[in-house]
Write a structure and sequence with these properties.
InterPro entries: NTF2-like_dom_sf, SnoaL-like. With 122 residues, the chain is an alpha+beta fold. Helices cover 16% and strands 48% of the residues. The mean pLDDT is 93.
Length: 122
């Protein structure tokens, strides 16, 4: 599943390795509280990665599915082991298995699926 590899790369000490999973004309939308980040290329995504704050962040996938070329995941984000928010992401894969399109929504105010981890920050 491409999104599992994507999140593993983004959570690693070398998130730039995630770029290898993307098509050159990769398009994306990342909706965060109060702002959206968009781009139309792998280079735009590299700029997004370079601008992220380096923290002990983990994306814990609670649900995932695939239907043809569409993958979806739902999970929670933790920083330093504590709950930060939840996310719902989808990707369309190219015939070669790379991520061609990506859309993510992150919220700090709602959980679609309860998380069994540390809820001290919920």
């Amino acid at each position: 599943m491409a999104l599992r590899a994507y999140f593993a790369g983004m959570d690693s000490r070398r998130p730039e390795q995630t770029l290898e999973l993307l098509e050159p004309d990769f398009r994306f939308l990342i909706a965060l509280p109060g702002k959206e980040v968009t781009g139309t290329s792998r280079e735009d995504f590299a700029a997004y990665i370079a601008g992220r704050n380096p923290v002990d962040r983990t994306h814990e996938i609670l649900r995932h599915s695939r239907d043809g070329d569409l993958e979806t995941v739902y999970g929670v984000v933790t920083e330093g082991g504590g709950y930060t928010g939840s996310f719902h992401s989808a990707a369309v894969l190219s015939p070669g298995g790379l991520i061609a399109r990506y859309q993510a929504f992150f919220t700090v105010s709602f959980q679609l699926i309860d998380w069994a981890g540390d809820r001290s920050r919920v």
